[in-house]
Give the backbone structure.
Amino acid sequence: MILNDKIYAMNEPALIRHAKNGDLTAFNKLVLQYQDMLYNTAYRILGDPGLAGDATQEAFISAFRKLKSYRGGSFKAWLLRIVTNACYDELRRQKRRPTTPLEPITENDEEMESPSWIADSADSPEKQLETLELEQAIQRCIENLPPDFRTVIVLADIQGLDYKEAAKAIKKPLGTIKSRLARARLRLRECLQKVKELLPTAFRLEGENNQ
Amino acid sequence: MKKNNSPRDLTKLSAYLDGELNASASRKMKSRLARDLNLAAALDDLRNTKNILRRIPHRRAPRNFTLSPQMVAARPPIPRLVPVLNYASILAIFLFFISFVSPIGLGAMAPAPEMMMEVAESAMMEEAPAAEEAPAEEMPAEEVMEEAAAEEPVVEEVVEGENAMGAATTIEATAQAVDDAEKSSADQETDGIAVAPTLPTGGTLVAEYTATPSIEKMPDISPSLSLSQWQKILLIVIILFPILAYILRRAVIEKWKKES
């Protein structure tokens, strides 16, 4: 218990150092720190909670095994690269064996299109619904993008990586990141215009002004 | 968004929005934006799209993804040769069975019993003309026997060069034929002569005797279950390669255990 407390008090470089020496407790501390980010990235790329969970787990296992190859720099970007690769693997698997995604089921055995666990309980029901609808609309538009564009926009605009970090994460040159991101944003904008009534007022007005 | 913004401009605009242009390119873009309203409108679109994406709620992990020692249990490396050996032995098993059932391929390399019989028959057919040279007209049985006896040296000549056993059998058969010309073919068979039928003409009989040594070769080419060279090689591969793969694997595991 004392050891665990010590480990929890460690900063990131110390945890990485310990984890590199095979300390699983130290690594699990890093897992707890980054699991939301990795899961969210995987979910935005794959669009399925189950697959995103699998990809996240796979990414952490892979990260622990490859930890000795980590040579410093942004640990976040390094982890994002691993989870992105796990997502690509999953997308390739899906291509080979297409499956029908299952929505959660309600008490009446009906498919629940908007699972309640993603809603922030602090908001009013109207606000929750609005948030969910907006999220779903954006997610559908993201899923309509080709996987390469999807990954770049998730890393840059959702996870907030800068171009260099994104380039490292997907092992592509900066120019590729720039052009993919610009094209992905344009495509997304076109897609979002179709669901503009769901969008925040400011965005809606801008879109209307530009037409 | 207006159509006159080139993809190149839009890429630069997107990078400008993210602060990823260098200082001089950023200044140029700023001055262009002040003059070009379409470009400015495109920038607004990109900015709004980016803001929308930033607003998307972050999904929290539905469970903890912490690892257990079992999940990260290291596995010993597999030597590269092991899968090669395994695949080779599988292929060898396949080819081995194919060699028995297929009339082509490896099966053709091994002389099949049927084919060997055909060879033997054709050999017999080649020797048959010698018999046809013998007198064709009917003769009394005694004369035939006498003639056969007189031709005994010829038979011996034919027999010469054949293996000793075959020769002995032939001579014995010839003598028996002279002594017991009227005996049935069944009797001759019981005496161990391979070609049995009693022939009415002396010529045919001579032909029979001259053909006998060839038929005596049959034990060599009989449909035995002996394996061809290829089949033997395949069998060796089937047995040895998995053993070799196992030994290699064990060696690597032992080494890996010592190192870890």
User: Anything to note?
Assistant: Residues 112-120, 205-211 of chain A have pLDDT under 50 and may be disordered. Residues 122-211 of chain A form a domain with the Arc Repressor Mutant, subunit A fold (CATH 1.10.10.10). Chain A has two domains: 1-102, 122-211.
